[in-house]
Automatic annotation (TrEMBL), chains A, B, C, D:
GO molecular function, one term: chorismate synthase activity
Positions of NADP(+) binding: 48
Keyword Transcription: no
GO biological process, one term: aromatic amino acid family biosynthetic process
Catalysed reaction, written as an equation: 5-O-(1-carboxyvinyl)-3-phosphoshikimate = chorismate + phosphate
Record's protein name: Chorismate synthase
Cellular component per GO, a single term: cytosol
Amino acid sequence: MAGNSYGTLFKLSTFGESHGEALGGIIDGCPAGIVLDLENIQYEMSRRKPGQSAIVTQRKEEDEVQFLSGIFEGKTTGTPIGFIIPNTNQKSDDYSHIKDTYRPSHADYVYEKKYGIRDYRGGGRSSARETASRVVAGAIAKQVLKDIKINAFVSSVGEIFIDKPYQELDFSKIESNPVRCPDEEAAAKMEEHIRDIRKQGDTVGGTITCVIQNVPIGLGEPVFDKLHAELGKAMLSINAVKGFEYGSGFCGARMKGSEHNDLYNPDGTTKTNLSGGIQGGISNGMDVYFRVAFKPVATLIQKQEVLDNQGNIVELTGKGRHDPCVVPRAVPIVEAMAALVLADFYLLNKTYL
Amino acid sequence: MAGNSYGTLFKLSTFGESHGEALGGIIDGCPAGIVLDLENIQYEMSRRKPGQSAIVTQRKEEDEVQFLSGIFEGKTTGTPIGFIIPNTNQKSDDYSHIKDTYRPSHADYVYEKKYGIRDYRGGGRSSARETASRVVAGAIAKQVLKDIKINAFVSSVGEIFIDKPYQELDFSKIESNPVRCPDEEAAAKMEEHIRDIRKQGDTVGGTITCVIQNVPIGLGEPVFDKLHAELGKAMLSINAVKGFEYGSGFCGARMKGSEHNDLYNPDGTTKTNLSGGIQGGISNGMDVYFRVAFKPVATLIQKQEVLDNQGNIVELTGKGRHDPCVVPRAVPIVEAMAALVLADFYLLNKTYL
Amino acid sequence: MAGNSYGTLFKLSTFGESHGEALGGIIDGCPAGIVLDLENIQYEMSRRKPGQSAIVTQRKEEDEVQFLSGIFEGKTTGTPIGFIIPNTNQKSDDYSHIKDTYRPSHADYVYEKKYGIRDYRGGGRSSARETASRVVAGAIAKQVLKDIKINAFVSSVGEIFIDKPYQELDFSKIESNPVRCPDEEAAAKMEEHIRDIRKQGDTVGGTITCVIQNVPIGLGEPVFDKLHAELGKAMLSINAVKGFEYGSGFCGARMKGSEHNDLYNPDGTTKTNLSGGIQGGISNGMDVYFRVAFKPVATLIQKQEVLDNQGNIVELTGKGRHDPCVVPRAVPIVEAMAALVLADFYLLNKTYL
Amino acid sequence: MAGNSYGTLFKLSTFGESHGEALGGIIDGCPAGIVLDLENIQYEMSRRKPGQSAIVTQRKEEDEVQFLSGIFEGKTTGTPIGFIIPNTNQKSDDYSHIKDTYRPSHADYVYEKKYGIRDYRGGGRSSARETASRVVAGAIAKQVLKDIKINAFVSSVGEIFIDKPYQELDFSKIESNPVRCPDEEAAAKMEEHIRDIRKQGDTVGGTITCVIQNVPIGLGEPVFDKLHAELGKAMLSINAVKGFEYGSGFCGARMKGSEHNDLYNPDGTTKTNLSGGIQGGISNGMDVYFRVAFKPVATLIQKQEVLDNQGNIVELTGKGRHDPCVVPRAVPIVEAMAALVLADFYLLNKTYL
C-alpha cells in the first residue's frame, strides 16, 4: 500500500484525491542551487489543465501550484520541495449519483474491493487529476536535465495517424493546435474527429509519441532497471495507458535480424535507429523514442449499464464535464514522466568514479 | 549502478556473466514453510535451456541450479535463498574475435562507454544467460502463488500469427511443440519458418502472449506501482523486448469508449475483458493478459559490418551457436517475471488490516 | 540527496523548513478503514509544541495540522495521507544576525558546504521543527498499532537521574509535570535544574527512556533490519541525539554471560529481560525498552565565538527563544519514531503465509 | 521478510546459514574499473576467522572467499560481484542436542515463533558466521573509499577499559595483540581476563571504538538518513550489539551547552570534537568516531536451564567451540559495516550537480 513514490535519487511522492482539499507532492533529491523557472512550471501546468480548448473537458480548474519548501531566494536548496495544488471549483454533487455504483472500466469497483472504502467523488485517488503533481515534478526535472530535449506529441487519434516518421516533423508546431499534433493536416482531421466524438457523447483513444534528444550515452541500469523498462513503467503508470513500445517496438517483432540491426558509423552513431537509442537497457547517444497507447476515456455522456453495490445492473447517464479524448492533455504528462525517469538515471550516472 | 534487484517483499537479486564461473542470485522474502518442488524448478530451467530442440541454439549447457541456503529439510525457512548456476562448457575462444569490436544492436558499445570496461565473452552481463536466475526465482514464486495460473506462449513469429483469441486455445498444448505455440497449425508454420531463417544465418522476431488466471481482486499499488506498470517493467527488462501491451493494448487506442467499456455482470465480473483484468492499476478478478514483443536476435551467422575500438568499420562473420528466434526459449522467462511481479503484490496485499 | 523518507510499508516522507511557509509530509501505506482520532493527533502535537510550559522555549506556535488527503468521512482510505503544518509567527529577523555566520555545533556550516546554499532562518531544514511532521505520522501509527503501548519519559537531565528501574514507575504520571518524568521527586529536581540553567543562558542535555509493551513476538527483519537496529536508526535521526542503547545496553558490555542470560519460564517468557525484549533482532514478547541520549542544545543566550563566511572568528550573543533542555519536548518525538518503526514491522509481519 | 540487503548505491545482499553449504552475497553498485586487492580481502577475512588465537573459538574454518562475477582481468566491471564462502568442517552433530531446545538469550525461540521453522544447526541464519559476508563487502568498500581511514579497536573487555583518549593511541598497534587493543597495558589485562573467563566456561562483553579519518565534508542525508543514524543502524545490525554512541555520546547528555559546543578555528575545523565529526547528520571534516557495546556471548560451557519445545525447563551443558569474548573478532566487522555506510554516502555525494 505504498505505491505513491517514483524514483530513487530524484524522487517524487504524491498525494491527493480529485475532490479533496488539495493535491500535492514532495520532490526529494532535487540538486541544490538550481534557479527555478517558476513560470515555466506553471506553463507546463497550463498544458495539462482542463478547459484549455474546445476539445477537452470544460471543467475550470486553476491548477496553481504553491511551493512550500526546498526553495530559498529562488534557488533549490537540496532539501525536499513540498508543493500543493488546491482543488478549486469541484462540484462534488456531480458525483453523488455514482456513490453506490461502479462505472464500467473505471476503478470504482476495484478500489472498493481492495480498500473496503473509496472516495467516490470524481474517482478520488484514481482520477487523472493526480497527474497534475507529476507535471510539477516533471517540469523541475526538465530544468535539472538542461540540454536533454523531451518532445511528446499526439501521433494518432482513433484511426487517424500521422503518416510520417518523426524526423520529418517540426516539433515547434506541437503547440500550434489544440490536439498537440505537429502534422497540421493530421491535426485538423484529429480535431474534427474529436468534435464529432464529443457530439455523440462518446470518447476515443489515441497514441502519443515521445522523442528525447541529446541523451548522454550510458543512462540505464541493467539488468532490471533498464532505461526502456523504467520508461515503460513510468508511462504505464499514467491513467488510461494500455501499451508501450520503443524503437521498432511491435513492428520489430515482425522483422529479420538482417533488417533490424543498426549498423555503426565510425563515430559510434548508427546509420539507422531501430534500437530507439537504447541497447542492452543503456542509452547509446541516439534519439530515444517511444510510443504510448491510451484507451478511450470510460466516462460517456450516454446512457449505459452500471453495477450498483447491491449487485443490480442499472442504467446510468454520465454527467459531469469530461474529455472526449485524453491524448491532447496527456502530452505534458508523458513528457513529465519521461523527465522523472531521465533525471533519476542522470543523477545516478554521476556516482561513477 | 544497482539495478540488479527486483521486487520489494519477494525480492530477487542476480549476479553473473555469460562466461564467468557461475550465475546466481538471492531470493529474499520467500515465505517460510513452503515445501519446494525442486524437480519443478529444474523443469522450468529445462524449458529455458539451450540445445533443447532443433530450432534453438545448439549450445550445451546443463543449467543445473544449486541451492546454498534458505531451505532446511525440504522447506523454505524464511531466510534468503542463495543459489548458483555454474557455467559449464563455455567456449570463451568463440568470442575472442569480438574483443575489440562492437557488434551492431548489441550492448558491447554502451557497456564499454558506461563502465569503461566490459567482459566481452558472450556479451558478459548483457547476455540473456542472466535470465536463468530469473527462471529459478520465478519457479519458486509460482509455488508461492499456488492457485494463480500463469501461461505464456508464442503468439507470433515474424509475420506468422495465431489468428484466434486466447480463449480458444488449449494451453496444455503449449509444450507439445518446440515453438511453444498452442495452435498446432500456426506452430508448424512457425517452426518451418524458423528453420528457414536459420539456414539463411538470419534471425527473426516474435511475440509472446501471457495469460494469468485466478488472480485475486486487489493486486497492484496505485498510483505508480500499478499492476500493469510493474508487469510492463518486468517484461521490458527481459533481453530483446521492444514492447508491452495489456488487454486491448494498442488496438484500444483506435477504439471508441462505447466499444471499449467492459460492462458488468451482477457478480462483478465483466461481459468483455478489454481491460485485461486490470482497472486503475488493480486486478479485478478477470484474466490478466498481455503481449510482449521481441526483436530478432542481433547475432547473425552472416558477414556484417561492425565497429572496432579504433573507430574503424570492419567486416565480421558471426560465429558461435545462437538462436535463430528467441521466443520459444523466452516463454518460461516471461512466466517467471510475471510470477515475480505477482508474488510481490500478493504478499503486499496481506498487509491490509 | 533523498533522505527524507522513513519506512517501507508504513512510509513517512517529510518536507519543510523552520521558517518556510509550511512543514508537512505524506504518510503512504496507512491501512484503510481506520477511524482516525484527530483530537489525539492534535494532543500529541501539543506535547511537542513550544510555549507549553515555563521550562521550554517561549516561542508561540500553533502547530495545527491540516489533512489534505487520504481520509474520507473520518476514515483512512488506503491512499496517501498528505498533511501540512503552516508556519505561523516566525520572526525571521531573529535570524538575520546569523546569515553570514556558522554557529558552533549547529548544522549551518555543513549545510552550506554540502549544498552550497542554506536557508539560514532558524536553521532551515536542520531545525528540530521538522519533527512536528514526525509526531503527526507517529500519532497515526500509534492508532494503527492499537494494543501496543509506547511510553517514553525523561530519565535524566544533566546529572539528575531517576534511580529506579522502569518497572517501579507509574507511567500515568509522565504528563503530571512539565519535565515528563514519572518519578515526581526526580522531576522536581530536574525542573529546578532546568530553570537554573535557563537563568544562566545555558542549556543542558538529558536522556529519554522508552518502554514498549504488548509487542507481538516476531517483529524485526534480520539480518540488517533488526528491530533494535531500526529503532536505533530512528532515534539517532532525531535532532541532538548522541546515543542509543537497548536492554542491558552499555552496562551489558561489562557483564558476564552467566549474569546476562535471560532464563526462560515454561511459557516462553523470561525471568529477567536484559535482552530488552529482542533476541537476534526479533521481538520475543517481553517489554522492548531502550534509552536515548540527547546533547545540550547548542544555542546559548550567551556571548560565544562563531565563524563567519569570511573565515573570521567573531563574537555573537545568541538571540531568539530557545529550549534550555530539549528532552521534555522530545518525549513525544521518541514515541512517534518508535511507533513508525513498529508500524512498519507490524504490517510486514502480515505478509507471512 | 526482506531484511538481508544493506545500502542503496553500494548495496550488499547476503545469504547463508552457519551450517548450510555456503554463505555468500552480492555487491551491487561497486564502481567499475577498480583493481581489487584480493589478498587484502582475504586478510580482512583472516582477522574475523575463528581459531586465529588462543582467546577465540577454536573452530577451524578456512573462510575462503570465491568470487563468481563482476570482476574481469582483475578489475571490477560495474556489474554485481557475486561471491560465496563455502562452509567447511562444520560439525552438525555438535548441535543435535539443541534441536528441540531454546537456549537462553539466543534467537532459537524467536526464529521458530516468527518463521515456524528454523535451521537449528549452529544458530542457522542467526549465527555471527553471517558476518563473514559483510567483511568481504566491507573490504571492497574500503578499496572504493581509498583515502578514508577506518580504524576500529577493542576499547574495553568487561570492566577493563582503555583510559586514554583515542588521540593518544597508536593504531598501528591494534594488530600487535590478539585482543586488538592498541593500548598494550590494557591489552595484556584484557587478554588475561578473557583467558580466566574461558577457564570458567563463561563469557564476557566488551566495547569497540571506531575512528574514521579523512572523511570528506558533506556525507550524510538528513533528515532520516543522517550519517550517525546509518552508522548506528549498521553497528546495531551486528550480532550481540546492545548500544551505539558517537562523539560525546551518553556523556554528552550530562553536559551543559557551554561545555559541549565545539568552537571553530578560522579554517572551519573545530577546537574540540564532541560532535564526533558530524553536525546535523552531515560529516564536517573532523574525525568521525563512535563506540559500540557488545553483550557477552550467550553460549556458556556450563550447565544452564533451557526451555524445550514441549514447554519444559531442562538442564543443558553448552558444547561446541565458542568465543569467550566476541570483541577481538568483531573489530573487522565493525570496520566493514562502517565502510559500507561510508561507501554508500560517498557515491551518493557524487550525484550533486
